[in-house]
Amino acid sequence: MAAYTLLQLLEVAAFSAILLAGVLKHSGAITLLGGGLLLSKAILNILWPEGGSVYRRSLIGYAVGAIYVVGAIVLSRFIG
User: Whole-model pTM?
Assistant: First the structure.
C-alpha cells in the first residue's frame, strides 16, 4: 500500500471518529466539524481526475469544508 493511500485512510478514520464523537456527545458543532472534514477529503479526491497538485486540491477541498462548517454552525445557531 502506498504511503499516500495509507495517509488518506488514516485521515478518513480520524475524521469519522470526530463525526462519531460529535453524535455521541450530542454536539452539533463537533458533528458538523467531522462532516466538514469528510466533505473536504471527498472534494480533494473528486478533483483528482482534473489534475493539479495535491496542495491545490487540498486548498480547494479544505476551503469548501471550512465554508460548510462555519455556515452550518451559524445556521444552526439561528435555527436551533
Answer: 0.89
Contacts 24+ apart (CB under 8 A), 3-7: 4/54
The letter for the amino acid at 63 is A
* Residue pointed to by grid coordinates 472534494: 43
What are the start-end ranges of the H helices in 1-80? 3-24, 28-46, 54-79
Which residue reads 460529535 in cell numbers? 22
Instruction: State how far the Cα of 57 lies from the Cα of 27, in Å rounded to an integer.
Output: 29
Nine cell digits for residue 47: 478533483
Predicted pLDDT at 4: 85
